[in-house]
Amino acid sequence: MSRLIVVSNRVNPPEKRGDAPAGGLAVAIAAALREYSGFWFGWSGQTTEGFTGEVKTSRVDDVTVRTIDLEEGDYQEYYNGYANGTLWPLFHYRIDLTAYDRSFGEGYDRVNRRFAEALAPLIEPGDLIWVHDYHLFPLARELRRLGIGNPIGFFLHIPWPAPQLLTTLPRHRALVEAMFDYDLVGFQTDEWLWAFESYVLGEAAGTWTRDGRMTAFGKTLSAKVFPIGLDVETFTELAASDTAIQTYDRMAAHAAFRSMVVGVERLDYSKGLEERLLGFERFLADNPYQRGKVLYLQVAPTSRGEVEAYQDMRGRLDALTGRINSMYGDMDFSPVRFINRNYRRDELAGVYRAAKVGLVTPLRDGMNLVAKEYVAAQDPHDPGVLVLSRFAGAARQMTEAVIVNPFSHEEMAEALKRALTMERAERIDRWQALMEGVRRTDVKTWRDAFVRALSATRGTGPVSELPVAQGGWRGVRAFDFARGQLRGHRRRPEAGEPGA
């Protein structure tokens, strides 16, 4: 069997499976590498005065990791700059927070080149290379320039923006062109795939091939949907652990005679934390009889604290939390508890189980595994209710949740009321359907589907192209969800159809 080489910005596998915070990427990658031989390559998280390219090797929880250190300038321009100051806000539809700086782009290209130069000598014939996320869009281009001909796949964990937004990015065409050095590009949902296809067809004069791939810039790739899943078996074991049970008992005692609502995510403007607090405030204002009976716990570890937008958001959240507690609290009770620290996954499993409502309401999200963790942690005989943003990728799968528009404070308040007053029979029915989906589309399904698709790209020869309508956006960009395609351009031919 081929080795699997996983590449991501950070290499940070949990030393113990219960120790990882609520992020999905590290858990999913570690699960993949426990099944396949190979290693995990990326940045160590450490900076050095001068870049040496030295690769350090270690083994953590049955996973081989190989890392390099970056210079401080690399960190500022590549990581804080282009990745998190430019791409992250733009891809989450926050063009108002997007920073455009030429030095950021230069640092981004430089670090991707350094990644490639350090990784290339470690690659053997037959290896499969799986690159993760927006930090490394150009990595395949740099590896190809060094003569690496192995199958290289890319998976985007965050949303892909609509073409109208992407075209505001300087050198947007070069970024998309670099993606065509991958053999396979994966997205979380069909919506993000359609947005990518829209750009290629409308801005890059792309065409379909007869086998359903896309051609542009003189190159061809496969683009498909691979919704990431939860490591269900591991997480359900954690949820039954002594630590999880103790945490559940502790939280249940703390919320005695009250219903607890919980939210867990990084402190990030894409997660909709301000909108969530405003929705909870509206709920308390509209439902006086619920005051003193509902506790909202928000766990939000600080991230990217050097970025000014995050510092500003932290101040606004503190002020909003204080206002709600001042207005609706009592001498012995505050309706909102806002915690800025990480917790172990087994501890979070206990928190989830104690919560009557899981509030997962990002403004824009690639998938959001917290929604799946909340469902997996529930008591089958008395489950809580998941309130889920329609703008999370998970909403495409988890339709039995209470789906909400997080931009509407009134809708958020109504969703909370509905969830807190839902009859037990309905809660059980919804949970059973959700849990079935979580098990069916788990991390193993995601991993194996992507690796199989990447393996299938081996030895693919030239293919004939099918012409499609050209001419930019005119008559092209409108989603037809009923037919599952974009109105105004030619659908990819299915197997057995004329032209397939």
Pick out its properties.
Rossmann fold, 500 residues, alpha/beta, disordered C terminus, 6-stranded parallel sheet
Summarize the structure.
With 500 residues, the chain is of the alpha/beta class.
How are the SSEs placed, and which strands pair?
Blueprint: E1 4-10, H1 25-35, E2 38-48, E3 56-60, E4 63-71, H2 72-91, H3 102-119, E5 128-132, H4 139-145, E6 152-155, H5 163-166, H6 172-179, E7 184-187, H7 190-203, E8 207-209, E9 214-216, E10 219-225, H8 232-239, H9 242-254, E11 259-264, H10 273-286, E12 294-299, H11 308-328, E13 336-339, H12 345-354, E14 357-360, H13 369-376, E15 385-389, E16 402-404, H14 409-420, H15 424-440, H16 443-455, E17 465-466, E18 478-480, E19 485-487
Parallel strand pairs: 1-2, 1-5, 2-4, 5-6, 6-7, 7-10, 11-12, 11-14, 12-13, 14-15, 15-16
Antiparallel strand pairs: 3-4, 8-9, 8-17, 9-10, 18-19
Helix pairs in contact: 2-3, 3-4, 9-12, 10-11, 10-14
